Amino acid sequence: MRVNSSDEIEIFEEIGRGGFGVVYRGIIKSTNQEVAIKQIDLEQDATDLIEINKEIQILSECKSPQITAYYGSFVKHYKLWVIMEYVDGGSIYDLLTPGTITNEATIAYIVKDVLMALKYLHNQGKIHRDLKSQNILVNKHGEIKLTDFGVSAQLSSNFSKRNTTVGTPYWMAPEVILNSESGHGFKADIWSLGCCAYEMFTGKPPLQSHIAPMKALRLISQCQHNGDFIKLIELDSLDDASREFRDFLSCCFIENSKARFDANKLLKHKFVSGGGVHNDDQEYGAKLVRKLITRKQLWNQTNASFKPKSFYVETEMYHNQAKWNDGDKVDVNDDKVSEVHFDISSISNSDHGNDTLPNISQTDIHAETKRHFDKIHTKAVTKVDSRSGLSDNQINTFNHLKDDMTSLITERNEKIVLFQYLKYMYKELSKEKNSALGKLILPHTTSRHEEGSVSSKTSTSALTLTTSATSGTTSSTTLKSRSKHNKFDEIEHSLMESWLRKTKT
């Protein structure tokens, strides 16, 4: 089934929002089948469009019951529309909101279907590379669907590994973080699946409950020998977990990717294939997942604050431009010609009662800067919401904050007020007297870099004073002191830049 035009679908309420755009629920008019409609503003930067094109390519080539179906894409009124299968049960991340999954048979059923999706992808020469609980969806029939291929990679027939660092920190395999010359293969997805299974049982992926993201990256990257990560996360301390489940996780968390189990081998593992439970029965497993959906719905009724639904409203811009451009061709006596909708938001009531037209406001020279700032703010709030689960009041507060900050993008003494404020705030947080607060706000690499700069200057001065009689030796010693680098410092520095560029939702 293919959808090639917006005329074939009817759009309803908004069901999601992220760095790429907005997702709406809709139906195909001819069949009444529900679909998810992702709308991407083509005015966003080229990187976003490239990532979306990757997702479309991967989706269009995948035909598996465990992967969200792709129905088509097209451009309409400056926006790219991507039509996909609508999965109405939410994500595993959502289903964990009321609490952890204590029934291992439920975890085994979910893991089995994800493994089947990964087996299909890997056999097709594809790596997902961003497998996490938010990307594992369930429908109300209890079926499992793998989605979000925005950072997936197609493996060339000439090589089987990638040399780029993408993913989400707590779910990333050591070889992905280190991004060594040999790159990483499809078994990086297996490591991420192990993190998802661990998250279902404990509520959070390994290390997330007590270690910050960048520090977690460093610790994971230092796990070079088989068994290091298992000791790091104290897997043996999961007393409530069965021996089969712990063994399954240990097979996923093998540091040597060559020795790590693949999807086909894990499907034969006792935990997945049925160790005294009925997880080989598809209907039984689906029933367990439907119980999770019911639990989440009951939790919503008691705890969650319901957000008012936002419905899709088509912009009048395109229609108005066509009428204004072809105005000389329009028959004003034709009753079928619909009215043109003008924006009257700039018209205000006049106390003087004159009939003169209001003055047209001058062009905002900072309009583009404000739009760019708005996109950055939206992506930041989306990231906080996905990690922390913001309430309605908190989201409204962020929206008001955005409006207030945008209003400060104005010049005073040839400098933009908001940016001056942010610059001085950064400087204050970088000072040693504010280090306690600075460590909670500033990126870890930033604070360490500045500390390193201070220590470097101090050591350089000391070397210069103590070796003033032999300036040649001083120069050599100073150069050596500056050239000493820890390889993990370089890894974390490059990761910080790569991660900030790649993680947008």
Features:
505 residues; 5-stranded antiparallel beta sheet; two-stranded antiparallel ribbon; globular; single chain; alpha+beta; 19 helices; Protein_kinase_ATP_BS
Beta-strand percent range: 5-15%
Mean pLDDT metric: 75
Question: Rounded to an integer, what's the Rg over CA atoms?
Answer: 27 Å
Low-confidence stretches: 150-167, 332-361, 446-451, 454-484
Shape: globular
Number of helices: 19
> What proportion of the residues is helical, as a percent range?
40-55%
H-E string: EEEHEEHHEEEEHHHHHHHHHHHEEHHHHH
Please provide the count of β strands: 11
- What structural class is derived from the secondary structure elements? alpha+beta
Major sheet? 5 strands, antiparallel
Give the termini distance in whole angstroms: 29 Å
> Which strand order does the major sheet show?
1-2-3-5-4
Region (Disordered): 446-484
Catalytic activity: L-seryl-[protein] + ATP = O-phospho-L-seryl-[protein] + ADP + H(+); L-threonyl-[protein] + ATP = O-phospho-L-threonyl-[protein] + ADP + H(+)
Binding site for ATP: 38
GO cellular component, one term: cytoplasm
